[in-house]
C-alpha cells in the first residue's frame, strides 16, 4: 500500500528532528575585576554558565590586558557565542547584568560604526577589537539576543558571577 504524505508535513517533520533549530538556548555571562579603579593591581576574570550539568560552563582569568570589568564582560560574551556556534546552536539568548554589554550590541555599535568607531564625545571606542570580533561572530549564522537582568536575580547569573570572580583570582599580571 502506498501512502501519500503532503510536502508540508515532510518539511515540518524533517526540521522537527533537530530541536536545536527551534530551541532558544540561554546562557549567563559575567565579568569581574578586582581593583578596577587602580592601574597596576587589577585582576579580571570571566564566567559563562549554561546550566547545572553543562560541560560548557567555563571560567578563567582574562587572557589579555587591560584588565577591566567591561573587557571581562565582553570576553565572556565572545567565548559564549563561539561555544554556541561550535555546538550548533542557532538561537542564543545572552543574559547579563552588564548594561554596558547590552547597550553596546543593541544600540551603540551601529552609531560607532557610522562614526568611524568614535563615541559621541569623539573619543575612540575602548575594546573596539573585541567588540568587532563579537559582532562578526554574532552575524555568522547565529541569532543572538541580549537581555539585561538585575544582578543576582537568577541562579544562573549568580553562578556566572561566582565563576568570574574565581577566574579573576587566577589572573596573571603582564609586564
Give the tally of β-strands. 5
The major pleated sheet works out as: 5 strands, mixed
CATH superfamily: Ribonuclease H-like superfamily/Ribonuclease H
- What would you call the shape? globular
Radius of gyration: 19 Å
Counting helices, strands and paired strands, the structural category is alpha/beta
| Integer tally of domains | 1
SSE series? HEEEHEHHEH
Kindly report how far apart the N and C termini lie: 77 Å
The CATH topology:
Nucleotidyltransferase, domain 5
Widest sheet: strand ordering? 3-2-1-4-5
Low-confidence stretches: 8-20
What does this protein structure show overall?
With 175 residues, the chain is α/β, with parallel strands linked by helices. It has a single domain, classed as Nucleotidyltransferase, domain 5. The chain is built from five helices and five strands; from the N terminus they run H-E-E-E-H-E-H-H-E-H. Helix 2 (69-87) packs parallel to helix 4. The longest helix has 19 residues, at 69-87. The protein is globular, with a radius of gyration of 19 Å. Residues 8-20 have low confidence and may be disordered. It comes from Panagrolaimus sp. JU765. This is RNase H type-1 domain-containing protein.
